[in-house]
Amino acid sequence: MNSLIRSTARCLRAGAAVYLPRQADGRVLAASARLLCAAADLQKDLGNMVKKDKVVVFMKGTPAQPMCGFSNAVVQILRMHGVDDYAAYNVLEDQDLREGVKVFSNWPTIPQVYFNGEFVGGCDILLQMHQNGDLVEELKKLGIHSALLETEKESK
């Protein structure tokens, strides 16, 4: 029981909202407390992951081998802009990561794109930003010069 109290206290210090289901006799279910703590740890880890690199993508597959059309579209958009240096996390390798990132961003779908630790959106949002020119501006804020600007200069 002491380990349960310690792990619950650690979760609370990490900022987790802890609800501890109880058995019929009033005892706390230890497994539930451990699951809640693991979820809180994952949310903290995700916060660190999205801040570690300027551009972070949670996707199905890898940039070299996307495993869905939406993830492939995000990779292609970034590639068009010359963004090759970004962190990509394959959610198909880890079910906890796949579900955890949806909770973290409050966004139900994969892929998910982050710039400087801030959630940008999924494939549809990135595509819209690409089409209306906002992506060039957002990349500029990150200190990334879009390759499309060079292409435009060369065509003139």
Describe it:
The chain is of the alpha+beta class and 156 residues long. The chain has a single domain, classed as 3-Layer(aba) Sandwich (Glutaredoxin). 54% of the residues lie in helices and 11% in strands. It has seven helices and four strands, in the order H-H-E-H-E-H-E-E-H-H-H. It has a four-stranded mixed beta sheet with strand order 2-1-3-4. Helix 1 packs parallel to helix 2, helix 2 packs across helix 4 and helix 3 runs parallel beside helix 5. The longest helix has 23 residues. The N and C termini lie far apart (72 Å).
What's the structural blueprint in terms of helices and strands?
Blueprint: H1 2-13, H2 30-52, E1 55-59, H3 69-80, E2 87-90, H4 95-105, E3 112-115, E4 118-121, H5 123-132, H6 134-141, H7 147-155
Parallel strand pairs: 1-2
Antiparallel strand pairs: 1-3, 3-4
Helix pairs in contact: 1-2, 2-4, 3-5
